[in-house]
């Protein structure tokens, strides 16, 4: 019986943490015109810097007319005109990027509010 407890304790070391989901819809209090403001205007280099704070990196990327999709080292990120979805797992820290994300979004899109 002691052997199975030891095995269980050994396996616990390899648990990397739960999945985390950050979904944010952005808008503007300034009344941007419909064609203005698009999260997909943010350069990849800026996303890479932001994701370093989260402790993950971009592995691959694809896009269509509606969404930019990123496969990350610790899951995935989806960026559309007004919405960001960041799904991570392991030892990532998605909340660490919130303040810099809000600043980045306002700088590149004019969105200054969250729905």
UniProtKB/TrEMBL annotation:
<comment type="similarity">
    <text>Belongs to the eukaryotic AdoMetDC family.</text>
</comment>
<comment type="pathway">
    <text>Amine and polyamine biosynthesis; S-adenosylmethioninamine biosynthesis; S-adenosylmethioninamine from S-adenosyl-L-methionine: step 1/1.</text>
</comment>
<protein>
    <submittedName>
        <fullName>S-adenosylmethionine decarboxylase proenzyme</fullName>
    </submittedName>
</protein>
<dbReference type="InterPro" id="IPR016067">
    <property type="entry name" value="S-AdoMet_deCO2ase_core"/>
</dbReference>
<keyword id="KW-0620">Polyamine biosynthesis</keyword>
<dbReference type="Pfam" id="PF01536">
    <property type="entry name" value="SAM_decarbox"/>
</dbReference>
<dbReference type="GO" id="GO:0006597">
    <property type="term" value="P:spermine biosynthetic process"/>
</dbReference>
<keyword id="KW-0745">Spermidine biosynthesis</keyword>
<dbReference type="InterPro" id="IPR018166">
    <property type="entry name" value="S-AdoMet_deCO2ase_CS"/>
</dbReference>
<dbReference type="GO" id="GO:0005829">
    <property type="term" value="C:cytosol"/>
</dbReference>
<dbReference type="InterPro" id="IPR048283">
    <property type="entry name" value="AdoMetDC-like"/>
</dbReference>
<dbReference type="GO" id="GO:0004014">
    <property type="term" value="F:adenosylmethionine decarboxylase activity"/>
</dbReference>
<dbReference type="GO" id="GO:0008295">
    <property type="term" value="P:spermidine biosynthetic process"/>
</dbReference>
């Amino acid at each position: 019986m002691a052997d199975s407890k030891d095995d269980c304790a050994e396996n616990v070391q390899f648990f990397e943490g739960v999945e985390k989901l950050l979904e944010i819809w952005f808008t503007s209090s300034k009344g941007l015109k419909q064609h203005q403001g698009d999260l997909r205007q943010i350069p990849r280099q800026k996303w890479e810097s932001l994701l370093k704070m989260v402790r993950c990196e971009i592995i691959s990327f694809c896009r269509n007319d509606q969404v930019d999709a990123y496969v990350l080292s610790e899951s995935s990120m989806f960026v559309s005109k007004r919405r960001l979805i960041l799904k991570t797992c392991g030892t990532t820290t998605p909340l660490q990027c919130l303040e810099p994300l809000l600043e980045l979004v306002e700088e590149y899109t004019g969105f200054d509010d969250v729905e």
